[in-house]
Amino acid sequence: MPLQVHLVSADAEVWSGEASLVVAKTVVGEIGIMPGHEPVLAILAEGQVRITETDGSRIIANAQDGFLSVESDELTIVAGNAALIS
């Protein structure tokens, strides 16, 4: 079962969909999230969020000032500022 991912900035949803892997930069280092990951709450650091969709294609966004939350294969990234770069 894939991850359900929601990447949201302060004013709009930036991206949502299914993914097999998400890598984000937190204040304590990078974290990789795959389906089945244990629940976690982390503070984002300024940097890239790299999303690998279930078909293997990749989405890259810049994000800063926020947090990420994982529970039951649902990943939510809430950033004060986020934008897709590819």
From TrEMBL:
Record has Nucleotidyltransferase as a keyword: no
Keywords from the named record: ATP synthesis, CF(1), Ion transport, Membrane, Transport
Gene3D superfamilies to which the protein is assigned, alphabetical: F0F1 ATP synthase delta/epsilon subunit, N-terminal
The ATP synthase F1 complex delta/epsilon subunit N-terminal domain, residue ranges: 3-82
Organism superkingdom: Bacteria
Membrane topology: Peripheral membrane protein
Cell compartments where the protein resides: Cell membrane
Alphabetized NCBIfam families for the sequence: ATP_synt_epsi, PRK13442.1
Oligomer status and interactors: F-type ATPases have 2 components, CF(1) - the catalytic core - and CF(0) - the membrane proton channel. CF(1) has five subunits: alpha(3), beta(3), gamma(1), delta(1), epsilon(1). CF(0) has three main subunits: a, b and c.
Family the entry assigns: Belongs to the ATPase epsilon chain family.
Name of the protein in question: ATP synthase F1 complex delta/epsilon subunit N-terminal domain-containing protein
Organism: Microbacterium awajiense
